[in-house]
Design a protein that fits this description.
alpha+beta; 2,3-Dihydroxybiphenyl 1,2-Dioxygenase, domain 1; 4-stranded mixed sheet; 4 helices
Length: 172
């Protein structure tokens, strides 16, 4: 929760400083906000809210961080804030998707959640194998999503469920 609040403040400060200086910093400003600032009119416009951050809880954070690095190549950085928290980068800037964070399960003030994140992979079969090789489990094997691709559901080393999706419009 603290990370999102901190980011939201940073975005608001960026909008204020950009408006005052006349600079356009659209991409930085819209990451954490459902409001779009129109620099010509000086007004804000509501846009469709979208998921901007995910969080993973782990009994052993270092084990989970290693799992996500080895399976997906995600980069992590320990957050320099008031709680033990790691920031996760899941792709290059400009690549569709979101980044997130990881915290020790005991430090998470929220009850366990039922949201499931799905990760874009080039091959469900290859990544299902990597998940198993690095201590995770495939809990629902590969199946076709006709016209879209293939999906499997897995559990990480901490028991968190996630999907892996290979896009292939020819899937039947």
């Amino acid at each position: 929760m603290c990370v999102l609040i901190s980011c939201a403040l940073t975005v608001s400060e960026s909008i204020a400083s950009a408006s005052a200086s006349g600079e356009r910093q659209d991409e930085k400003m819209h990451i954490w906000s459902s409001r779009k600032h129109d620099f010509q009119t000086g007004k804000e416009k509501l846009i469709m809210p979208r998921v901007v951050h995910f969080e993973i809880s782990a009994d052993e954070p270092e084990r989970a961080l290693k799992f996500y690095d080895e399976v997906f190549g995600w980069k992590t950085q320990k957050w320099d804030g008031p709680q033990t928290y790691w920031l996760i980068t899941t792709g290059e800037a400009g690549q569709p998707g979101i980044d997130g964070g990881l915290m020790k399960r005991a430090d998470n003030p929220l009850p366990p959640s039922s949201a499931t994140n799905t990760i874009d992979v080039p091959s469900v079969d290859d990544y299902a194998r990597k998940v198993s090789e690095h201590g995770g489990k495939v809990v629902m094997p590969r199946s076709a999503v006709p016209g879209h691709g293939y999906i499997a559901y897995c559990a990480d080393t901490e028991g968190n469920i996630f999907g892996i999706m290979e896009f292939d419009p020819s899937a039947k």
